[in-house]
Amino acid sequence: MRLRSAFLRKHQSLTALRAFEAVARLNSISSAAEELHVTRPAVSKQVTQLESDMGCPLLQRTGNVIRLTSAGRELFAALQQAFELIQLTTDTISRRARRGEHLRVLVCRDFASSWLAGQVGKFLVANPGISVEITAENNFSFRLDEDFDFRIFYGMHGARAGGGLEETELCRWIDVLVCTRAFAETYLGEGHKPCEAPYLIDANYDVWDEWCTLTGLDPGGPRHQQTVFNETTLCLSVAASGGGLTIGDSFLALPAIQTGELIVPYPLGLVSAQNYSLFKPKARPNSPASQKFETWLRGAIDAYQVTVRQALAEKGIRVVERTDAIDQSAPIG
Fold it and tell me: Which residue range or ranges hold the HTH lysR-type domain (predicted)?
């Protein structure tokens, strides 16, 4: 049942609605009176007045037993949702007021650990009055029941439309094949095909076949051996130990490539079809703190993307845009 504000203004029955909700939830007028710190007759009067205002019975009273009528059940369900929303909203506002300029950012785990954790300190130093709470989420787990100012998540743009969220693209990354030098010498040297190497797969992001097709790398056939993980960072950790060949994106893999811990055996990179997006609750107004954080984040990512292109160029790695035409008649590998 939808309770319009005009109804509340006309009948001034918010107190009666609260009394009825307590009686329906506790199934007792006495218990409701105790919870609301009023007398039992006061609760009975409020419920009776509400029934009169609405023109229908809400409770069936048989001795000491109270049951809800069909109208009572409908009203009770609506009131539960309304009071829960009010409680959540007041708690959120109160918590922010106590904390001052505080931001809560939800980030998919790979991005949080591989890039944001190493960058956010610069924002905090430049903005000493703002505190940031960063929560790393499981990759590909996009819950809608969380309270946050920003959420950084990856996927196809628009795939998670709705839910009261505004989505804007942050960036795309560059995928490269990586492994150790010793691994490449053993498994990717002359006489070996890429498909024969032990492969490390992120179950949430397996673009091996597409990567080969668009870059022109001939893998020599389907993968022969693979180990599957649920995070790209795990794939990269095993690759760095010499355990396999994997695809690493430029946000996660670049530091290891720059230090030589990982090499790019085939000097090609492919711009991703997916992207990192920034999500914000539509109903939440931008605060000065959130505006500063978003401006910093976009600037930091743009600067990093320039660094990525320069670092890959220095390594002789050609970046393939997805719109580039690939000459399939002259495959690499």
Answer: 12-69
